């Protein structure tokens, strides 16, 4: 309908074309803008987001060498207190032993002023396809995923198996000696 | 037996139809709500945050003793202009039940931003028992759940003047409408309070809740009954319709878009049909 | 149209287009139905509501699917889940208000569409099936709207469901078993809500199916037009695109602007305040009024206050109400006139407008209490409603002397332009078959 060759009448086609093109553009813009709320509604809603606020964890109940699972944003996280020999075993591993090397010290933390830094806080969701790995005490191996056999070390670094990346660290901070906040890196 | 069921069904229908007819005979409220000026009236009207804050104070210090506000979460108070810290501190004044803990027991903890306003009574029955048989309704939606029939011709005119404040007008009128002197042709049951603005009778169980000077407002607003009634009515409009500002802002953009689009389509249509008789 | 306008001007140019055309000519079907399809050149804006209705069906289905992602059909959670949509879901309030007000505007458009059909005699042969399919769509819409209204589980939802399913108890012997079958219990409750949700989700797709049949039937016979004269030659028509599409689009956007005004500025005006009170099986609202689009039928229901022989007033009311809808199905055979359009039928035109006014009046009576003078008025108004279909339509067709009819649509168009415009009348270069390519 905007075929100007059929309307050889000087300036008129230009104006007609402009109106048709502008109308068409309005339609496209309107359809795109109208589509947004229908996509927007699928994102986590305000209640879900509010329920995903940081959680406080009492660490005093965890024995050295023990692990607990906590839930933040509906997903599980491991909190593990390492023994000295487990930290030593993790330190012996080098770049050649794993797929994504990161120094063990960067994945271990502790409260300010504590004598030793021996806490590991990692996601409990396998980076392969999302299963929850089993805890194993077979230093330097620390986790084994039952779904497809990925093996992670004591600080959650991927040693072998189909997973390609280390277990991610959530944002966290030690509020005091025995209180950990998961979900925020600020007290 | 079957006959009885049929008759009962018929009686139920008859009763419903009679109830349908009853409202005009009873004709409550006796007085129509008095229309007020609201900051949120009209297509460009928005909530007044200071007013909502005063309304929150009145709700929290008076109404909340009997009335729940269970659909409002503390996090929603950000709409009233409060910071996260203020909300956290405000919420911590309330206790909510949580649990079960590791031993299977329920326990109380300070509320967080994610919690809703805790209700003053555990259930409807407890609320009734504590209030002489009358149930103080949850106020979350009250500004949309109370809208006296406007009737003809107001019903036809309202869309043209964009009148949508029947609810807050009703709340304001009710709160300021208590009368000590009862007309002779009205009988007020024992223990109830005469109010010609009440939607479902001559009198209600709620005693006049507002008194001159009962609050002090940080912004210096005078605590008259009228001012406070207006503030709390505005606050309850917000609890019922928290996205109204957003709705009207989006609405303006949509209307402008549609009108420009319509104008362009009209021009296109004229062009297309320009040399075609029809 | 009767094969006068030969379809099939579609010629695929690309290789892919030819490949598809040889196997499943869907593009050809679309082209023939919505591009080359010839429509009378004299259609006015009353003929745009079909397109508007199809868009509203899409709006209702799309917003409905979105709402169903968040809604919980459980008597203890339904109301809360709707409030969750209104407060917490991103754009949830918009989806909900669009759906709620969309129902009102869907009905507004369908009533205008039906009145258009009655005015221009669109139901007359050979379009009886087209008309009946439309009546079926209307019935399905009513069922869908009723069940949708129950879902928010407010006071009006609950008591509306109680009253409407109560209609069935009017029938002797089978009435109560039917009601219990519908409710899945002895009163409205969880089973009722669950099945209404299921059916409310299903019926719109059945509507969509019948709409396809409706459009199919339309494209077999072709549109009527304000003159009521069938298309006789190519000059009577223009191609659907761009002529009808651009006009439909303009009307649609104007209608959407009115709809948007209510969605954004008066979203609760057409609803009822009591539905913001959670359902309470122990407390009946002070007055139960259906949504406005059911009010005329509600008035007819309540107008029958007397027994007719063995038929009780209650059963009579229910029969009258159902008949008021069902009478539409036989309209093609009630109208005996040889002339189709009211334009050339002065008496029918008058009767039609009285019928429209009477329908609105019935709606107003439906919102009033069934007592005193209102009962008598409702009875009179009901008599006029049925009188229009059962007496005026058959009798007027036989006794009325219609005005002179033009010989063709083209002649009617030229006559009118000669009257209004100054210059020598000509048709312009666009006709449906004038395929310029």
UniProtKB/TrEMBL annotation, chain A:
Q: Which spans are transmembrane here?
A: 18-39
Location relative to the cell: Cell membrane
Among its keywords, does the record have Electron transport? yes
Record-level GO cellular component terms: plasma membrane
State the UniProt keywords alphabetically. Answer: 2Fe-2S, Cell membrane, Disulfide bond, Electron transport, Iron, Iron-sulfur, Membrane, Metal-binding, Oxidoreductase, Translocase, Transmembrane, Transmembrane helix, Transport
Give start and end of each Rieske domain: 90-181
Q: What class of enzyme is it?
A: translocase
The record's annotation in SUPFAM superfamilies points to:
ISP domain
**InterPro entries membership:** Rieske_2Fe-2S, Rieske_2Fe-2S_sf, Rieske_Fe-S_prot, Rieske_Fe-S_prot_C, TAT_signal, TAT_signal_bac_arc, Ubiq_cytC_Rdtase_Fe-S_su_TAT, Ubiquinol_cyt_c_Rdtase_Fe-S-su
Its membrane topology, per UniProt?
A: Single-pass membrane protein
Recorded family membership = Belongs to the Rieske iron-sulfur protein family.
The name this protein goes by in its record: Ubiquinol-cytochrome c reductase iron-sulfur subunit
Automatic annotation (TrEMBL), chain B:
Gene Ontology cellular-component terms for this entry are:
membrane
Molecular-function annotations in GO: electron transfer activity; heme binding; metal ion binding
What domain of life does the native source organism fall in? Bacteria
**Cofactor annotation comment:** Binds 1 heme c group covalently per subunit.
- Primary place of residence? membrane
Is this entry keyworded Protein biosynthesis? no
Q: Which organism is it from?
A: Oceaniradius stylonematis
Cytochrome c domain: residues covered? 50-202
Q: Would you tell me the protein name for this molecule?
A: Cytochrome c1
Asked if the Swiss-Prot or TrEMBL record annotates the protein with the keyword Ion transport, the reply is: no
What this protein needs as a cofactor is:
heme c
State one Pfam family annotation: Cytochrom_C1
Which keywords label this protein? Electron transport, Heme, Iron, Membrane, Metal-binding, Respiratory chain, Signal, Transmembrane, Transmembrane helix, Transport
UniProt xrefs under Gene3D superfamilies: Cytochrome c-like domain (1.10.760.10), Cytochrome c1, transmembrane anchor, C-terminal (1.20.5.100)
Q: What is its subcellular localisation?
A: Membrane
Automatic annotation (TrEMBL), chain C:
Its annotated compartments are: Membrane
Q: Which residues bind heme b b562?
A: 99, 200
Specify where the region named Disordered lies, as residue ranges.
417-437
Q: Which Pfam families match?
A: Cytochrom_B_C, Cytochrome_B
Annotated membrane topology: Multi-pass membrane protein
User: Residues that bind heme b b566, according to the entry?
Assistant: 113, 214
The UniProt entry, under SUPFAM superfamilies, shows: a domain/subunit of cytochrome bc1 complex (Ubiquinol-cytochrome c reductase), Transmembrane di-heme cytochromes
Which PROSITE patterns does the entry link to? CYTB_CTER, CYTB_NTER
Protein name per Swiss-Prot or TrEMBL: Cytochrome b
Q: Does Transport show up as a keyword for this record?
A: yes
Which keywords annotate this record?
Answer: Electron transport, Heme, Iron, Membrane, Metal-binding, Respiratory chain, Transmembrane, Transmembrane helix, Transport
Organism of origin: Oceaniradius stylonematis
Segments passing through the bilayer: 45-69, 105-123, 129-151, 158-178, 198-218, 249-266, 315-334, 346-367, 373-399
Required co-factor(s) are: heme b; heme
Q: Which residues bind a ubiquinone?
A: 219
Instruction: Identify the residues that the record assigns to the Cytochrome b/b6 N-terminal region profile domain, covering every copy.
Output: 16-227
The annotation note on the cofactor reads:
Binds 2 heme groups non-covalently.
- Function summary: Component of the ubiquinol-cytochrome c reductase complex (complex III or cytochrome b-c1 complex), which is a respiratory chain that generates an electrochemical potential coupled to ATP synthesis.
Q: What is its main location?
A: membrane
Q: How does it assemble?
A: The main subunits of complex b-c1 are: cytochrome b, cytochrome c1 and the Rieske protein.
Similarity comment text for this entry: Belongs to the cytochrome b family.
Annotated Gene Ontology cellular component terms: respiratory chain complex III
PANTHER family in UniProt: CYTOCHROME B
- Domain Cytochrome b/b6 C-terminal region profile, first and last residues per copy: 230-407
């Amino acid at each position: 309908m905007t075929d100007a060759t059929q309307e050889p009448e000087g300036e008129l086609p230009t104006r007609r074309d402009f109106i048709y093109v502008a109308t068409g553009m309005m339609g496209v813009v309107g359809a795109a803008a109208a589509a947004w709320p229908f996509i927007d509604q699928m994102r986590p809603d305000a209640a879900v987001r509010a329920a995903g606020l940081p959680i406080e964890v009492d660490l005093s109940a965890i024995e050295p060498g023990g692990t607990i699972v906590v839930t933040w944003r509906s997903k599980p996280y491991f909190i593990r207190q390492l023994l000295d020999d487990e930290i030593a075993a993790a330190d012996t591993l080098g770049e050649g032993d794993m797929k994504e090397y990161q120094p063990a010290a960067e994945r271990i933390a502790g409260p300010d002023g504590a004598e030793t830094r021996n806490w590991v806080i990692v996601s409990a969701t396998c980076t392969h396809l999302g299963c929850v790995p089993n805890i194993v005490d077979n230093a330097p191996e620390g986790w084994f995923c039952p779904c497809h056999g990925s093996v992670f070390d004591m600080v959650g670094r991927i040693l072998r198996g189909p997973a390609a990346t280390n277990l991610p660290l959530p944002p966290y901070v030690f509020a005091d000696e025995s209180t950990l906040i998961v979900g925020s890196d600020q007290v | 037996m079957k006959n009885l069921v049929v008759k009962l069904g018929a009686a139920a229908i008859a009763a419903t139809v009679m109830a349908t007819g009853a409202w005009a005979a009873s004709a409550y409220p006796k007085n129509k709500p008095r229309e007020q000026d609201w900051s949120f009236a009209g297509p460009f009207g928005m909530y007044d945050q200071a007013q909502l804050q005063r309304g929150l104070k009145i709700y929290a210090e008076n109404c909340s003793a009997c009335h729940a506000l269970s659909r409002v979460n503390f996090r929603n108070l950000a709409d009233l202009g409060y910071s996260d810290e203020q909300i956290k501190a405000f919420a911590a004044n309330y206790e909510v039940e949580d649990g079960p803990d590791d031993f299977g027991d329920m326990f109380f903890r300070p509320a967080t931003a994610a919690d809703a306003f805790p209700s003053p009574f555990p259930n409807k029955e407890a609320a009734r028992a504590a209030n002489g048989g009358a149930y103080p309704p949850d106020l979350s939606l009250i500004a949309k759940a109370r809208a006296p029939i406007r009737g003809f011709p107001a019903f036809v005119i309202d869309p043209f003047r964009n009148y949508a404040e029947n609810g807050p007008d009703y709340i304001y009128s009710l709160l300021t409408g208590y009368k000590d002197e009862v007309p002779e042709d009205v009988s007020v049951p024992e223990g109830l309070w005469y109010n010609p603005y009440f939607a479902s009778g001559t009198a209600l169980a709620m005693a006049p809740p507002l008194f001159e000077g009962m609050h002090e407002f940080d912004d210096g607003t005078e605590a008259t009954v009228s001012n406070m009634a207006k503030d709390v009515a505005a606050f309850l409009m917000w609890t019922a319709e928290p996205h109204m500002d957003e709705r009207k802002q989006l609405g303006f953009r949509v209307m402008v878009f549609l009108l420009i689009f319509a104008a362009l389509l009209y021009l296109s249509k004229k062009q297309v049909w320009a040399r075609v008789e029809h | 149209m009767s094969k006068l306008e030969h379809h099939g001007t579609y010629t695929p140019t690309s290789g892919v287009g030819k490949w598809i055309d040889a196997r499943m000519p869907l593009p050809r079907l679309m082209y023939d139905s919505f591009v080359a399809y010839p429509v009378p050149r004299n259609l006015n804006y009353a003929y745009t509501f079909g397109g508007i209705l199809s868009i509203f069906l899409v709006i209702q289905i799309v917003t409905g699917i979105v709402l169903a992602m968040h809604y919980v059909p459980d008597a203890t959670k339904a109301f809360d889940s709707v409030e969750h949509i209104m407060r917490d879901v991103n754009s949830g309030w918009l989806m909900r208000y669009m759906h709620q007000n969309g129902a009102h505007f869907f009905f507004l458009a369908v009533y205008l569409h039906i009145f258009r059909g009655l005015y221009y005699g669109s139901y007359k042969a050979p379009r009886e099936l087209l008309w009946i399919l439309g009546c079926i769509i209307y019935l399905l819409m009513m069922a869908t709207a009723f069940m949708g209204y129950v879902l928010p589980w407010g006071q009006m939802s609950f008591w509306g469901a109680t009253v409407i399913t109560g209609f069935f108890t009017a029938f002797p012997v089978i009435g109560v078993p039917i009601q219990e079958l519908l409710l899945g219990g002895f009163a409205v409750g969880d089973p009722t809500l669950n099945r209404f949700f299921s059916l409310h989700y299903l019926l719109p797709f059945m509507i969509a199916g019948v709409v396809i049949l409706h459009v199919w039937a339309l494209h077999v016979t072709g549109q009527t037009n304000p003159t009521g004269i069938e298309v006789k030659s190519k000059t009577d028509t223009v191609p659907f695109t761009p002529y009808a599409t651009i006009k439909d689009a303009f009307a649609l956007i104007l209608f959407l602007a009115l709809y948007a005004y209510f969605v954004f500025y008066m979203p609760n005006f057409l609803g009822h305040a009591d539905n913001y009170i959670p359902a309470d099986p122990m407390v009946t609202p002070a007055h139960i009024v259906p949504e406005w689009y059911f009010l005329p039928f509600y008035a007819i229901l309540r107008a029958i206050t007397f027994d007719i022989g063995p038929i009780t007033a209650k059963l009579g009311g229910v029969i009258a109400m159902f008949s008021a809808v069902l009478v539409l199905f036989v309209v093609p055979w009630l109208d005996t006139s040889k002339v189709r359009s009211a334009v050339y039928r002065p008496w029918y035109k008058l009767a039609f407008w009285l019928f429209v006014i009477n329908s609105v009046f019935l709606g107003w009576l439906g919102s009033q209490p069934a007592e005193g003078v209102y009962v008598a008025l409702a009875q009179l108004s009901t008599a006029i409603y049925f009188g229009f279909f059962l007496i005026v339509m058959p009798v007027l067709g036989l006794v009325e002397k219609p005005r002179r009819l033009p010989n063709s649509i083209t002649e009617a168009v030229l006559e009118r332009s000669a009257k209004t415009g100054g210059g020598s009348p000509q048709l312009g270069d666009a006709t449906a078959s004038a395929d310029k390519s």
